[in-house]
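Data availability (excerpt). The following record was deposited with the supplementary files.
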Amino acid sequence: MWKRLVVTAALGLVACGPGQLTPAARNDGALTVTVGVSRSSLHLADSITRVELSLTNGAFTATLHLGSATAGQWTGTLDPVPVGSGYTLAVEAYDAGDTLLYQGSMSPITVTPNTMSTVIILAQQASPPAPYVNVPPHITGVPYDW
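Predicted structure:
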């Protein structure tokens, strides 16, 4: 059975505080990411020591490194993200030995001014175990003794 890592990303314009540009003046967005493990696989979170996300399109590339988890979740924000389309969001999760455990991606993604979009990636094991094969017995004959 494959194990999965769930990535939820919200893309949109960031909230602004005092001294910051208004969303209309900024004309860019931000990426807020939550990476989590499903409840049935929560024990797997202990083996993940690092999560990396990359957001790319033809003109823009950014990487977000997420270190330690809190209650099986990693969070982070990538800001600014230029408004545009054709983005690809990719996630990779590693263990302490830098072995890739999970990977997944989603595309195309569009960052639009004044909107919030949700992207969900179901990352799969990078090296899943061999599938179980059920081989039924093969009967070649039945001894018959009178």
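Summary of structural features: Residues 4-125 form a domain with the Immunoglobulin-like fold (CATH 2.60.40.10).
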